[in-house]
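Subject: mismatched residue count in predicted assembly?

I count 499 residues in my input, but I want to confirm that the predicted structure covers every chain. Input:
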Amino acid sequence: MNRLNATTTPDSALLHRRTLRETGIVHLGLGNFHRAHQAVFTAAALDHTDGPWGILGVASRSGRVVDAMHEQDLRYSVVEISPQDTRIVVPAVHTGAFVAAQQPEAVLDAIAAPGTAIVTLTVTENGYTYSPRTRGLDFDNPAVRADLSGASPTTTIGQLTRALQRRLRAHAAPITILSCDNLTGNGTHTARLVREFAAALPADERDELTAWLAEAVTFPNSMVDRIVPATTDAYQAAVAEQLGLCDTVPVPAEPFSMWVLEDDFAAGRPRWEHGGARFTADVVPYELLKLRLLNGTHSLIAYLGALSGCDTIAASTAQPFVAEAARRVLCEDYLPTIAVPADIDIDDYIAQLFDRWGNTALGHRTRQVGSDGSAKLAQRIPDAALRHLRAGRVPQHLALTVAAYLCCMAPPEGFEAGPHAAAMADPNRASLVAAAERTGSTAAFVTEVFRSGLLGDELATRTEFVSRVAEFVDIIAVHGPAAAAAEAADQEPASAWRT
Ligand code: CS2
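Triage response: the counts match. Full output below for your records.
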């Protein structure tokens, strides 16, 4: 079978047909999400309005996608999957791809290049070397310290700041850094970390860079949304069947896609609105809507699902006790903490979320959503929980989410968390297991977890929440996740928000 490449791609699958030569965007994090989201929006924008917006994709460590994309003239397919339909599109917007770990200086040169107007990021919640404890750059992280010492940088914040420094020295042309990760105020957050890195440089470098950052570099906030599972052989088979071609790095995705951005670009941008993106003066309400209603609820579905033996999000949500817990965490614990943007019909939005989670064709795994919970939950839980606690209410299903997470990471003695929980990757797993072994009781373990700063310092002082988490851990351990969910639901009558 022929390989997918520039000659073989059928026109009917191409999202835009011009051959791109100019690189206007450098993207850090050449993973599936970028390839199914921003790349597709960019292709659709270029199909409508031409521009110098080719994307140079930088993978952080792995060469798998980079090598395969080179073998395919930088092309790959996006397989949009629903139970009704499979649609394949080829975005064809990349002008280059390489691995940062193999060519660290090339990252700096690419960002400093005069043609580069935007740097986009999908480096995951974990990729920002952020400390929830200090709420700033993690200066205790050896990689951050190495980047500050002047070695070729390996952290994203180090790469960005060193590249901006190089750009300032070379020609000082304005540029935009656009975070596309699931973080509240992702642009503001990135700006703060870059400025903290710059402020830690020697005075002669620091002052000039800090002034130029304020003047010439923008960091718009953006909300990104598309469920993108890890790829499997089934997607290669779908491409083979529909296009008659071999693509070794297709990306699966749900049909839904959404992008809301602040229009604050220092040196121009593609006409992403033609691909369906929305521009707005204030993205934060959209970010909170998505981070809490979708991502926050997603975490609970993933942990309860894994603990009840479910491989996929769709299988987990198909269980009535999980659907009920999801509805309650969403409507009672998250929704009252946000201001719904005026153009969102909240009932439709919620109904659509349940449809999206119920997409049985997608194969989105509980282990994928449950991975990196230590970084994800810090974004999803503390601010919402504190809003309720300050008002005198213990948000039961937020406590349940943390308890289910802890049972997946450090299963209590005698409790079998199962293979899906065991397969969740998390940089904090080992320290959680060690804390569980060290402490004599669930209450002591959970208290220690909160004191470690995992969910920020303030939530650790809310003993009513901390002890509720411990109680749920015990209930899960003895009676299972469904009993814990029933206990959470019993604490309060279902609210008027139920739809
Ligand atoms: C998920 C997200 O893995 C996770 O934590 O909640 O990746 C989610 O699928 C996307 O944010 C959807 O846009």
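Residues 182, 225-227, 294-295, 298, 368-369, 376 surround D-mannonic acid (CB under 6 Å). Marking this ticket as 'not a bug'.
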